[in-house]
Amino acid sequence: MQLVIAQLVGVMVFFVGVLILGLWLRRRPTAGAARRMSVASHTLFHAGLSVPMVWGLFWPGAGRFDAIVGLPSLPVPIAWRFLGVVLLAVGIYFVALSNVALAKWGKGWRRSCYRNRLSKPAFMSGRATPWHWGGI
Asked: Are the CB atoms for 112 and 129 separated by under 8 Å?
């Protein structure tokens, strides 16, 4: 049960923290503030979401989450496993296809267009955006 509580607290801390950071950035729209917000949001993401998830994978283990909250395990028919493998293969195919298309036809041009549409406010025009720092 400690794991479930840690995960819920992590999600809440991340959500509230990013909300506060977003409001603070709107009040101080500078490149330095955006850089600090990017670092802070990454820290909140990893501390609030990644750490509890990895903790759960190793203790008590990914297959025992239902026992933690007192639910009986569902039977996993072979059809569901087959469907999962097929959907995973389709997802991997689309990721590979999009990476090949990005490398072949633009080296990130579409991503840059999308980024420029999102960062239209005057304070960000002509400057590096949080996308360049890995913030979005």
From this structure: no
**CA 70 – CA 64 distance, rounded (Å):** 10
CA distance 62 to 85: 18
Spatial distance between the Cα atoms of 3 and 11, rounded to a whole number of angstroms? 12
Supply 108's token pair: 């990130």
- Neighbour tally for 136: CB within 10 Å: 13
In sequence order, what are the residues at sequence separation of 6 or more whose Cβ sits closer than 8 angstroms to the Cβ of residue 10? 47, 48, 49, 51, 52
Residue 129 and residue 117: Cα distance in Å, rounded? 12
How is residue 9 written in tokens?
């607290």
Sorted by sequence, the CB contacts under 8 Å of residue 90 that are 6+ apart come out as none
Per residue in 89-114, pLDDT (tens digit) is 999 998 888 877 776 765 554 555 55
Average pLDDT rounded to a whole number, residues 110-125: 54
Cα distance between residue 28 and residue 55, in whole Å: 36
In the numeric block, which tokens belong to residue 10? Answer: 């992590």
**Distance, first Cα to last Cα, the chain:** 33
